[in-house]
Design a protein that fits this description.
Strand order of the largest sheet: 12-11-10-9-13-14
Shape: globular
Low-confidence stretches: none
Mean pLDDT: 95
Number of domains: 3
CATH class of the largest domain: Alpha Beta
Strand content: 5-15%
Radius of gyration: 24 Å
Bound molecules: FE2/S2 (inorganic) cluster
Number of strands: 14
Distance between the termini: 36 Å
CATH topology of the largest domain: Rossmann fold
Largest sheet: 6 strands, mixed
Length: 579
């Protein structure tokens, strides 16, 4: 590109003047040992880092950032690394989801308020990917995602075990008495044996795949293991590319189009991705002004085969996915079967998604299966509606039991998560394999933060009988590493006055995933009278602090759980401050 076509650098508003303001902006930066020439027209590239030792999945990010910097320097840019709130899934209470929006606000204001021309987002653990994309979308600078990559395969007794999924499986086996506590505990070290994110197709891997399918990262970003040297090559190349993106003025809004989201929904079905993607994609779309509805998941995703054979739906792990060809291989399969809706969608490397994937090699048909031999014929996310979920609910068919996809059963009701924990162990609990477990008050406002508790463990007495799955319904979310016939994200939630709040023990509920319905078998009059009796009786959990702000402003699951006041892009303009 010729000099005359170069866009004016945004950072010049800080560093480009030879006056009192320019002096002050530069002078304080110079205390880091930065020479004069660095301020003379180089694109300034932010590296937005979610490194934290309390977010173990992102704990290798200082090293990752160094490789991004090498690429930026090589391309003639000026890298500036900055920290943002890091919400790790494994440690943060009550749930990392409570702080996704908080982190996105930190990201948005950090990018907009500081002198940078573009930004590299270092993401990994579940909520860090959507939070950083949401914040960056609201500013809309040239942006590129670099994920931290998955952990190596977990190991137990010489066999592979998957992050999270192994915990649910082994815990149920221990409760059923088929393994000992010692065997359970010995899995602890072997499951997480390298840097990186969960190695199953949980939410972190799903969102890394979504970032790549949306076109916001370089090809193969999703699956290269965290400790593979090629992860650092990708970070380096992303550093080079982001400098070029400044010259091309390739902003996030040119990448995050409606077409990109439609591609991502299709890819989510093909990979057997997490239900959490429904909420996060809606929230990201909401920031960039792209309309996306629950029904899009049915219209676009339905009929798409799941071809990536990864836990928790299938057999393998992210390490094998990369060796088999990674996401470009899976996208190639979709495209060859005319299942990629928008091949021309632009990605951050300036090529279309299809140009990046059409010749991608596929090395293992067991991991990236041919379309004619899918893991699940009809993957994707099942969207449910009915009098129990007027604004929708979701279920992941690939993680569910086929015989329960159409089921009518008697409700066993838990008023909240504590009630569930105290009641589920009761040997006299009136429950059998046909019952439906219902949990209330675990939605965005109710928990608050909509924790991943929707995959309620089964009653021990049924586990002991060899029962491994039951229909479960709640307004909660579920870990992407979990499985079962679990209806999630019921909206409106119980705390917001939704019908879930009026379900009683012994009520019959009818679930039909084939026609997308979820109904409570009571008359309209009974429904109206129970709702009227309950109106106004729900007390919010927090009366002050951030949790109060969250409860007051969080939108329901069908709207992406963003804050009402954060929707939309506010751009990168910032009032000029005169010292
Ligand atoms: Fe961080 Fe799973 S706990 S990716």
């Amino acid at each position: 590109m010729s000099e005359t076509k170069k866009p004016k650098l945004r950072s010049a508003e800080w560093f480009g003047t030879q006056d009192k303001n320019g002096f002050m902006y530069r002078s304080w930066m110079k205390n880091q040992g930065i020479p004069d020439h660095e301020f003379q027209g180089k694109p300034i590239i932010g590296i937005c880092n979610t490194w934290s030792e309390l977010t173990p999945c992102n704990a290798h990010f200082r090293q990752l950032a160094e490789h991004v910097k090498k690429g930026i320097l090589e391309a003639g840019g000026f890298p500036v690394e900055f920290p943002v709130f890091s919400n790790g899934e494994s440690n943060l209470r009550p749930t990392a989801m409570l702080t996704r929006n908080l982190a996105s606000m930190d990201v948005e204001e950090s990018i907009r308020g500081n002198p940078m021309d573009a930004v590299v987002l270092l993401v990994g653990c579940d909520k860090t990917t959507p939070a950083l994309l949401m914040g960056a979308a609201s500013v809309d600078l040239p942006t590129i995602v670099v994920s931290g990559g998955p952990m190596l395969n977990g190991k137990l007794n010489g066999k592979n075990i998957g992050s999270g999924t192994a915990v649910w499986q082994l815990h149920e086996q221990m409760k059923a008495g088929t393994i000992t506590l010692h065997q359970f505990m010995s899995a602890e070290s072997g499951m997480s044996r390298s840097a990186g994110t969960c190695n199953t197709m949980g939410t972190a891997s799903t969102m890394a795949c979504m970032a790549e399918a949306l076109g916001t990262s370089l090809p193969h970003n999703a699956a290269i293991p965290a400790v593979d040297s090629r992860r650092y090559v990708l970070a380096h190349m992303s550093g080079i590319r982001i400098v070029e993106m400044v010259q091309e003025d390739l902003r996030l809004s040119k990448i995050l189009t409606r077409e990109a989201f439609e591609n991502a929904i299709k890819v989510n079905a093909a990979i057997g991705g997490s239900t959490n993607a429904v909420i996060h994609l809606k929230a990201i779309a909401g920031r960039i002004g792209v309309p996306l509805e629950l029904e899009d998941w049915t219209a676009i995703g339905k009929g798409t085969p799941t071809i990536v054979d990864l836990l928790p739906s299938g057999r393998y792990l992210m390490e094998e996915f990369y060796y088999a060809g990674g996401l470009p291989g899976a996208i190639r399969r979709l495209g060859e079967g005319n299942l990629l809706p928008h091949k021309h969608a632009l990605t951050v490397n300036g090529k279309s998604l299809w140009q990046n994937c059409e010749e991608a090699p596929i090395y293992d048909d067991e991991v990236i299966r041919p379309l004619a031999k899918p893991l699940i014929e009809d993957g994707g996310i099942c969207i449910l509606r009915g009098n129990l979920a007027p604004r929708g609910a979701v279920l992941k068919p690939s993680a569910a039991s086929p015989h329960l996809m159409k089921h009518r059963g008697k409700a066993v009701v838990f008023e909240d998560f504590d009630h569930y924990k105290s009641r589920i162990l009761d040997p006299d609990l009136d429950v059998d394999a046909d019952s439906i477990l219902v949990m209330k008050n675990c939605g965005p406002k109710g928990y608050p933060g909509m924790a991943e508790v929707g995959n309620m463990g089964l009653p021990p007495k049924l586990l002991a009988q060899g029962i491994t799955d039951m229909v479960r319904i709640s307004d909660a979310r579920m870990s992407g590493t979990a499985y079962g016939t679990v209806v999630l994200h019921v909206a409106p939630e119980a705390m917001a006055g939704g019908p879930l709040g009026i379900v009683q023990d012994g009520d019959f509920i009818a679930l039909d995933c084939h026609n997308g319905s979820l109904n409570l078998d009571i008359s309209d009059d009974e429904m109206a009278s129970r709702l009227a009796a309950r109106a106004g009786s729900q007390a919010p959990v927090a009366k002050s602090g951030y949790q109060k702000l969250y409860i007051d402003h969080v939108l329901q699951a069908d709207e992406g759980c963003d804050f009402d006041f954060l929707l939309g892009s506010r751009g990168s303009a910032v009032p000029r401050h005169s010292h």
